[in-house]
Amino acid sequence: MPKRSIGERSSATELSVATDEIWMQEAVLAAHRALEAGEVPVGAIVVCDNKVVGRGWNRNLTDCDPSAHAEIVALRESARNVGNHRLGDCELFATIEPCAMCAGALVHARLKRLVYGADDPKAGAVHSVLQVLNHPGLNHRMQVRGGVLAGRCAELIQEFFRKLR
Questions:
Q1: Catalytic residue among 14, 21, 36, 71
Q2: How many CA atoms lie less than 13 Å away from 140 in the CB half-sphere?
Q3: DSSP codes, 9-70
Q4: Does residue 7 carry a pLDDT above 60?
Q5: Which pTM does this prediction carry?
Q6: What kind and span of H or E run contains 92?
Q7: CA distance to 44, 125, 155, per residue, from 105 (Å)
Q8: Predicted confidence band at 4 (pLDDT cuts at 50, 70, 90)?
Q9: What is the three-class DSSP state of 16?
Q10: Arithmetic mean of pLDDT, 29-35
């Protein structure tokens, strides 16, 4: 990348990339909450108007709930805080590519954008295994960006499973 002179502004793309990384760091912090609870370390946040309106981390064991994935927990909190089950002006940041259940929930919430960290080659439903988001048969489309802080996000999960073995 060429050097900018003093006072030269960053491009919108550079700012977006930097902002995505800042928000993903917040999702990573949420993943650490799951790790502390003995859950698979996945975290998610929902951002609307440049502020966090919902946070979630895996709570399957804690809540004895198979649907308590980080994304679902974050969507539920966001909907309560926003006062609407439609989150059309919001973006979700997740540390791992959402599964089919979570991807379906993102479509139903009408999110504007999904940003995720690591691909999930076993259960990812954005592009790895299934392509639930932006499927031509569905009535909602959202922007998607994967790979944000992917190494850091993948390492959290890989280390968790290494310790289990």
A1: 71
A2: 19
A3: PPPHHHHHHHHHHHHHHHHHHHHHHHHHTTS---EEEEEETTEEEEEEE--HHHHT-TT--H
A4: no
A5: 0.90
A6: strand 90-96
A7: 13, 12, 26
A8: very low
A9: helix
A10: 97
Q: What digits encode the pLDDT tens for the residues 40-89?
A: 999 999 999 999 999 999 999 999 999 999 999 999 999 999 999 999 99
Q: DSSP 3-state assignment of 44?
A: strand
Our separate counts of H helices and E strands in the chain read 5, 5
Average pLDDT for 21-35: 98
Cβ 46 vs Cβ 87: under 8 Å: yes
> Is the sign of the CA dihedral 28, 29, 33, 35 positive or negative?
positive
pLDDT reported for residue 13: 65
What's the rounded Cα separation, in Å, for the pair 37 and 68?
13
Is there a catalytic annotation at residue 71? Answer: yes
The Cα–Cα gap between 78 and 36 comes to 23
Least-confidence region, from 4-8, 14-18, 83-87, 156-160: 4-8
Question: Which of 131, 127, 95 has the alpha carbon at shortest distance from 21?
Answer: 95
- d(C-alpha 125, C-alpha 127), whole Å: 6
126: its two tokens:
């954005």
CA dist., res. 127 & res. 144, Å (int): 10
Average of pLDDT values for 26-30?
Answer: 98
The DSSP code for 70 is H
